[in-house]
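Appendix B: complex inputs.
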Amino acid sequence: MNWSAITEAAATGILWIAFACFIVVALRNIVALAQLIVAAWVFWTRVQPGKGARDLWQRYGDLTLPITVIAPAYNEELSIVQSVKALLTLEYPEHEVIVVNDGSKDDTLGTLLRDFDMYRADRTQIAELQQTRILGTYRSRRYPNLLVVDKENGRKADAANAGIGFARTPLVCIIDADSIIEPDGLLRAAEPFMYDNENLVAVGGAIRIANGCTIRGGSLQKIGIAHEMVPRFQIVEYLRAFLMNRVANAHTNTLMLISGAFGLFRRSTLVEMGGYRHDTVGEDLELVVRMHRFMRDNGRKYRIAFVPDIVCWTEAPAALKGLDNQRARWQQGALETLQRHRGMIGNPRYGRIGLLAMPQIVLEDIFGPPAELLGYLVLPAAALLGLLDPIMAVAFFFVSVVFGCALSVGTLVLEEQQLRRTPSAKDLLRIGIAAVVENFGYRQINLWYRLNGIRRFFRNDTSWAAVPRVGFTGS
Amino acid sequence: MNFYQNIVLGTSVFAAAIILVFLALVFRRYLSERDQARRDERDTAITRNYLQRVAGHKVEDVRTWDRRTRLAAISRILPLLRGGERMRLLQIAELDGVLSETVRVSYSVYRAQRINAIQLLQRFGSEVCIGRLREMMARDRSQRVRLEAAFALAANRSLPPPRETLRLLKALNRRPTRLDIALLRSAAPLYPEQMLLLLDDDLPEAWRVQIIDALGWSENVAVIGALDSASSDADPEIRCAVMRASARLGHPAARRWIMMGLADPASSVRLQAIAASVRLGLGKTVPAITRLRNDPELWVRLRADQALEQLPAADTGTPQLSVVG
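Resulting structure:
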């Protein structure tokens, strides 16, 4: 093979790579645009949450399914008391709070025992789903609906499993200990269960970034916007994920992820499935994918719903340091889930989950990040070398960056038109600017973090680093 | 233009359109914030105006207030008024054509808007509103709207008889949801005799269970006989419903059914009987519940443990009577 043949082969290769990158990015955008349209339709036709049916529930409170809120806690000594107090005061006819102390190295357990006047009680565990040892259970003399489970350290999935095992209510709500639940968040999330005839197995709710908000006593006092750009970019990302992606997926019965920060599940289904898996860093995605698989394998009718109203606020990494680990972990978790459930991909036996939802995750998490990042390098280079029409490189830029801006701003339009939870016009404009700016730098950095996640997946890296938190204003 | 040029153009137009819509929304929000003080002042004036009219004072007629603004003001005032004042406010609202605006929206082609109108009609609860709600419950093309209208009527204690309610909601063709159960419970005190008559029909078993459950909310001793015969029904779901109804009704006869329930072969009935004992504070059931701590069913053992913590140590014997009818 002579030199010209080599360069010709290289040029052909580059061209193919360029076309492949272009097609993958364009496909992702077509999917996102379809989701935006479906979400807009859902919002346009949805009934605003009103007091109608809720008035009646208050009269017949026993009809609402009792809920156990499970809050795994690890080294939360400073904030746990306020968080638990906020959980105990949530508006709901009947709910129990189970705090699982996951082998904290600080005085989380001691703080709980002292502040809630707790005593050791031998509560029977109905299902043993955790892999570590339970060290004790404690009940409060002042709050009969509070239970603390002390166990050896085993990460969040293990702690949540321990809590599910102790729960006695038909529904369990798994949250992060530092999640700020809206006062009526449980009521809103449980509402779909009131219209259901036993098919509904899980409900997710919209989550918003709490950075910049004023939090007191574990409750949200005032909505605000963080000064730093990284949390603002994440506000846009969360809006895109929750108001566009999940609303559309739930509408088409293809919801594949219920965030670990807030998820409401039918307890019996979780117990049957064995709870969360311990051997993945993306346990929340894996759980919902496995739930689809479990229900379909067993030929059961089921539904997973999503409530577009905000039910929960969570603190996001305030800087790129911390975000890197989080995003790499999410990516790694997605790949682990896809590998474990690869038999579902494109499999007609799993209906729209196998034929639509799983291929969408493959497009988004396997092909998407490398294709886009590679496209940024290959297409301009190929255009400069004269291998392809420069207008194709420009079109790639428009399809990835300009279209990305439009989708983000489109989600903001949905938010402002329907939910209106952004405090002021000024803040709305700030988020709008973030929605445009995030496509120039932040988006590409994120892609790099996701590539790191892919690398971690192939290296089978199981290390887990906590996301650094800076705490809330006024907390 | 080639394919890629079309993509560039299409994307640009799409992005520009969305950004323009967004900027328009930001501007709308800005104007809304800027006018907040003026709107507050106007709302206060409307509220004062209506309160004065309700009290019979002479007021200046301001025609610049649109119906939607008046409607919002009346919605705010209404929960604060009772009896005659409330009636007068509703009459004034009707005279001002404010309610007709809500009634007009209730004919919207959009389901969501019709449901939003139902929520307002429910809050006002005047004769016109109740009439329109009945019409929507009977004839709306959407089952969800019919259900919402039924709720609104139930909240105003104006629900049609249960047989009609079930027919209009096409309820018997499906399994009852928790909302259906709530509707039946709210119909029970209004139509206790009709609820009993319904039991003579050839009903799906799931609905029979819920009707027996609803009898507990009837506040009427005439249902005791029906509950008594249902307490020995072959279907454990029916016996469970008797336990729930007993717990709610609080009639002395309940003690016998609950004692029977605690020894029932079906674990679900034993569970309901424990719950009924706790609700009624039946100290007499403590020995039976203590025995249930060794029940073969885990859930029964757990609930028995819980119940023993809640039940009074002393035997009061007779439950508190809550029946008024």
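Chain B touches chain A through 50 residues (CB under 8 Å).
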